[in-house]
Amino acid sequence: MGEPVIIYGRQPVWEALRARHTVKTLYLTSGEGKIIRRIQEKARTLQIPIHKTSKDALQKLTGPVVHQGIAAEIGAVMPGDQQALLEYLSQKEAPFVVILDQIQDPHNVGAIIRSAEVAGAHALVLGAKGSPEINATIVKTSVGAVFHLPLFRVARLDDLIEQFNEQGIYTVALKEGNPTPMYHLDLRRAVALITGNEGQGVRKNILRLCRGVLSIPQQGRIGSLNASVAAAVALFEVVRQRQD
Predict the structure, then answer these.
(1) Quick one: CATH architecture of 82-243?
(2) What's the rounded Cα separation, in Å, for the pair 166 and 36?
(3) Residue of 182 and 224 predicted with greater confidence
(4) Residues 98, 193: contact at Cβ < 8 Å?
(5) The two domains 5-74 and 82-243 share their CATH topology (first three levels equal)
C-alpha cells in the first residue's frame, strides 16, 4: 500500500482534504488565517485528528522546507497500473494523456502534473523506471494537483505507446529542434503527449514508436526550455486547438 507521506503547505493540504484523499493527522502551529480556519473546519467535518504543535516540532517533522505552519500525514499516493489506465481511457472521448519519459526531478514532475491538471488532461503516466515516487516535494510543487489528476505507472512505456497506436491514440513526442512546429499538428483528436528529461529528452526507442514529433518554436539564443515549462507550452497548445 505504500508508506504514509508527510505533506506540507496550505494549498497541498487543502487539496488533499478537498479530494477526500486519506489524511491521517493534521498538524498546525496556529489556527489563524482564513485558509487555516477553512482547513480546520474541513478536517473536523471529515473527523481527522488535529494536532497543535510548535514551529520547531513541525520543522523537524517536515524537514528543511517552508511549511507555512501546516502539515499532514497522508496515505501514499498510489498510481494505477496499465490495465487500469486503458480501462479508464476507454470511457473518455478523445483522451488527452501526458507521458513522462524518465523525468527524474521531482520539481519538474510536480510542475508538469500541475500544468496537466489545469489543462484538463485526463491522465498522466510515469514509467516504472527512472521516475520518482509521489513524494512531498511532488505534492507541494503540484500545489495538490496530484489529488485531482489520475496518475498511472506502467512497467514499459514502449508497450503502452504501441497499444495507444493500435487504439488510434495519436502518440506525439516533444523534441527540441524538430522541424515540425506544434502548430502544424492536429492535436484535437485523442492524443498522448510524451516529454522527456532535460538531459536526453525522449529516448530514441520511444521516439521511434511515436506517430508524430513536435517542437516549440524558439527565437532566443539559449535554445532550450526547462522540461516543465516546455511541457506546459505544449499542453496548452492542445487546449488552444480543442477550443477553436
Answers:
(1) 3-Layer(aba) Sandwich (3.40)
(2) 49
(3) 182
(4) yes
(5) no
Q: What does each C-alpha distance from 232 to 7, 29, 204 come to in angstroms?
A: 24, 35, 22
Of 81, 57, 79, the residue nearest 70 (C-alpha): 57
Which amino acid makes up residue 61? L
Q: Which three cell numbers stand for residue 125?
A: 503516466
Q: Report the percent of the chain where pLDDT is more than 90.
A: 85
15: helix, strand or coil: helix
Nine cell digits for residue 26: 493534521
Residue 113 pLDDT: 98
Read off the pLDDT of residues 133-155 as tens digits, 9 standing for 90 and up.
Answer: 999 999 999 999 999 999 999 99
**Quick check: 137 and 125 in contact, CB under 8 A?**
no
Angstrom distance (rounded) from CA 39 to CA 115: 24
21-61 per-position pLDDT tens digit? 999 999 999 878 899 999 999 999 999 999 999 999 999 99
Strands (E), the chain: 5-8, 23-28, 50-52, 70-74, 96-101, 123-127, 151-154, 170-174, 191-196, 212-214
Query: Which pLDDT score, from 0 to 100, does residue 1 have?
Result: 56
Q: Give residue limits of the domains in the chain.
A: 5-74, 82-243
Protein fold of 5-74: 60s Ribosomal Protein L30; Chain: A; (3.30.1330)
Beta-ladder partners of 240: none
